[in-house]
Design goal:
4-stranded mixed β-sheet; alpha+beta; 2 domains; 51% helix; 271 residues
Length: 271
């Protein structure tokens, strides 16, 4: 088959999978996500947990909840059945959420599997910040007296992101240095710390025209937010599992979509 025809076939299959996911009806299912924006946010985040490559890989998901159990339907543009390592990752991920594991442990599990995608996002985010020179301080040129900075200082200290002796500007400098130097050979712990720090930086720190000067401009904030999605999704999904008392989590891969709207799924059950 011609390569172009093969590509078009792959695209069509994926589009059908997305249609299947979006066509799932709630009916008598008790969906927790009554807020549409939050529903979309967490689905975007869940999708990201199943994307491993730096580019050219896309995943779509939908979430159905019943009493004591939940099902995540997912489809990827690479519509192959998950291999042994991916199955192991999914199994472990679901067990961690159902078992209410520590958020840091879940993050480590995700980063290990999604390493290429995580690094790709970090490298892209680094490009929207000034390239730091060796020994440079206060890279963003932030005034220490900024009220927003004072609030961030307290938040970072409460989260143990910086200690009492570390100025918050120095903490931000460390973050930007870590972004600038991230690559495939980076230290695993450092990458996890970048994602955790990104989550802290995006909570109530979006650019606000009423407050001058903001810590980040819109492009910088958006870049950091894309990193924060990993940790934020873990927090959200862990909270959902706890609130709904979910004891069984099922993943279903959508493999095809027929004209009569019936889902043809390959599924694995994780508890």
């Amino acid at each position: 088959m011609d390569p172009q025809e093969t590509l078009l076939e792959d695209v069509n299959i994926f589009q059908n999978c997305i249609s299947a996911l979006s066509d799932v009806q709630e009916d008598d299912q008790d969906i927790y996500f009554k807020s549409f924006p939050k529903h979309v946010r967490i689905l975007d985040g869940i999708s990201l947990l199943f994307v491993y490559e730096g580019s050219s890989e896309v995943c779509a998901t939908t979430f159905i909840q019943q009493t004591g159990s939940a099902t995540i339907l997912w489809a990827k543009n690479s519509h192959q059945v998950p291999g042994e390592e991916e199955q192991k990752y999914m199994n472990g991920l679901c067990n961690l959420f159902v078992g209410q594991a520590d958020t840091h442990d879940i993050l480590k599990h995700v980063v290990k599997q999604c390493w290429k995608k995580v690094i790709s996002r970090i490298v892209k985010t680094a490009t929207v910040f000034p390239r730091p020179t060796k020994g440079q301080k206060n890279i963003l040129g932030i005034e220490e007296t900024t009220g927003r900075l004072e609030r961030l200082r307290e938040k970072l200290r409460r989260a143990n992101a910086i200690d009492l002796e570390t100025p918050v500007v120095e903490g931000l400098d460390r973050f930007i240095y870590a972004l600038a130097n991230a690559n495939e050979a980076s230290d695993f712990v450092t990458i996890c710390q970048i994602l955790q720090f990104a989550q802290l930086l995006t909570v109530k720190n979006a650019p606000d025209p009423k407050q001058v000067p903001p810590l980040f401009d819109y492009v910088q904030y958006r870049g950091i937010f894309k990193l924060a999605v990993y940790y934020r999704t873990i927090l959200d999904l862990r909270s959902v599992c706890k609130r709904l008392k979910i004891k069984s989590l099922t993943l279903q891969q959508v493999s095809s979509f027929s004209a009569n709207s019936h889902l043809n799924c390959k599924s694995s059950r994780y508890t």
